């Protein structure tokens, strides 16, 4: 994995452009996401552990918005079911290229890993195969709000009985005081991880138009509207959470 540290927003920018998953972000992404998302390493590793409970023999496991394949690698470390394969999908060519390199490196270090296919595609246009596990790890928040329910409905249709969707997201809160407190504590988390006030402010304005978080209540209602029968939060750290949705 790249050890380059994230300094993308360290200097004053004349114009802060909308955040994009481009080559510059790819180079620093492992450092950026670990220092920005409280609980990220715990979430990723445990998606592997949870997936092992839901994976069905002879089925597909999807990692949607796979970035550099951290979730895919965890799935391959933990899932032992017979004849499963992982499909990792991202629409950033820079991410897909580097993700494939990392997965080749994982192949050379371990034996008997699940086979994996990395696809450069828009998950809104993907034809889903019958799947026992779908992971959306901090991806739905980057999908246009109007597209979120149709996407979740298609995922629900593709899920096999006994399977699950694991959905991790940054949350917003309907209660203004709760929202303000957890936002302030998230900023403290970033500060403690070495980000300056300037870096925090410029990143916030870069994300403003492209990352649109929902509340836990909105997630629950939308998942039920998409046809899921049960929504179980299994992790929350500050304003970041992960849910299990059962078909
Ligand atoms: C925050 S990152 C996900 C992190 C990753 N799942 C992990 O656990 O390390 C969001 C990813 O979603 C991808 N993405 C956003 N919209 C997408 C779409 N419509 N189709 C496919 N990928 C998309 C971005 O390119 C980016 O790599
Ligand atoms: O909310 C923030 O400030 C973030 O940096 C969050 C977040 C995310 O949740 O995906 C945004 C962009 C990067 O991918 C890493 C982290």
From TrEMBL:
Ligand binding (S-adenosyl-L-methionine): 40, 65-67, 90-91, 122-123, 137, 204
GO biological process: tRNA wobble uridine modification
Gene Ontology MF, one: carboxyl- or carbamoyltransferase activity
EC number: 2.1.3.-
InterPro entries in UniProt: CmoA, Methyltransf_25, SAM-dependent_MTases_sf
Pfam families: Methyltransf_25
Methyltransferase domain: residues covered: 63-163
Record field: catalytic activity: prephenate + S-adenosyl-L-methionine = carboxy-S-adenosyl-L-methionine + 3-phenylpyruvate + H2O
Transmembrane segments: none
Keyword Ribosomal protein: no
Keywords noted in UniProt: S-adenosyl-L-methionine, Transferase
HAMAP family, per the entry: Cx_SAM_synthase
Family in the record: Belongs to the class I-like SAM-binding methyltransferase superfamily. Cx-SAM synthase family.
NCBIfam families, per the entry: carboxy-S-adenosyl-L-methionine synthase CmoA, PRK15451.1
Complex and partners: Homodimer.
Function: Catalyzes the conversion of S-adenosyl-L-methionine (SAM) to carboxy-S-adenosyl-L-methionine (Cx-SAM).
Full protein name: Carboxy-S-adenosyl-L-methionine synthase
Gene: cmoA
């Amino acid at each position: 994995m790249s050890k380059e540290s994230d300094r993308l927003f360290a200097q004053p920018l004349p114009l802060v452009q909308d955040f994009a998953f481009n080559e510059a972000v790819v180079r620093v992404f492992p450092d950026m996401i670990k220092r920005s998302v409280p609980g990220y390493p715990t979430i990723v590793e445990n998606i592997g552990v949870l997936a092992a409970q839901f994976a069905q023999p002879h089925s597909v496991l999807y990692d949607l918005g796979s970035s550099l394949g951290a979730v895919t690698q965890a799935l391959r470390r933990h899932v032992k079911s017979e004849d499963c394969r992982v499909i990792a999908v991202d629409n950033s060519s820079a991410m897909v290229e580097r993700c494939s390199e990392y997965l080749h490196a994982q192949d050379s270090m371990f034996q008997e890993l699940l086979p994996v296919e990395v696809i450069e595609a828009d998950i809104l246009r993907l034809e889903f195969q019958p799947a026992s596990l779908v992971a959306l790890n901090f991806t739905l928040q980057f999908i246009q709000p109007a597209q979120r329910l149709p996407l979740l409905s298609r995922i629900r249709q593709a899920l096999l009985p006994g399977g699950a969707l694991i959905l991790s997201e940054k949350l917003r809160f309907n209660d203004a005081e709760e929202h303000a407190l957890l936002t302030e504590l998230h900023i403290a988390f970033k500060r403690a991880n070495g980000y300056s006030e300037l870096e925090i402010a410029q990143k916030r304005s870069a994300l403003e138009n492209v990352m649109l978080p929902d509340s836990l209540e909105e997630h629950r209602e939308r998942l039920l509207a998409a046809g899921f029968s049960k929504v179980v939060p299994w992790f929350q750290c500050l304003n970041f959470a992960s849910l299990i949705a059962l078909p």
